[in-house]
Design brief:
The chain has helices spanning 11-27, 50-62, 78-88, 103-109, 112-119, and strands spanning 2-6, 30-34, 37-38, 67-70, 73-74, 93-98, 124-128. It is an alpha/beta fold and 132 residues long.
């Protein structure tokens, strides 16, 4: 049994990470931390630095959670990469962060989170950034 969290170094990604650690602690399961870079892209703001990855992995371990970091690359579609990893590792839960977007932004840009919610064959926990 395990939980997969899609981590990006943003406030939304931090919220998803915190929720994933909490769920892994409650369920006493392994946590898979995924941060994927698109192949051929030199500057990708969604790619976490080694320091960010070390920090979130340490936070999981400090909470008593066994965490494994996966840093695969993906070609065209991050959604497919996340769903494939969830199936490959037979995770029990996928945790993702949701950012606030306008209806027009959703229509024009699409949404990885929306596609994961609709296409996943297992439970998905969608987390918003703490607005406090």
């Amino acid at each position: 049994m395990s939980i997969l969290v899609g981590y990006v170094p943003t406030p939304v990604g931090e919220a998803a990470m915190a929720a994933a650690i909490q769920e892994a602690t409650l369920r006493d399961v392994e946590l898979l931390i995924v941060n994927s870079q698109r192949e051929g892209v030199l500057a990708d703001p969604s790619v976490a630095s080694d320091a960010d990855i070390e920090r979130v992995a340490d936070a999981a371990q400090d909470a008593g959670v066994n965490a494994t970091v996966l840093r695969p690359t993906h070609r065209d579609d991050l959604t497919d990469a996340i769903l494939d990893l969830a199936q490959e590792h037979d995770v029990d839960l996928i945790v993702i962060g949701l950012r606030r977007r306008t209806q027009v932004g959703k229509f024009i840009m699409g949404s990885h989170a929306q596609r994961i919610l609709l296409q996943a064959d297992r439970p998905v926990l969608a987390v918003k950034e703490d607005s406090a």
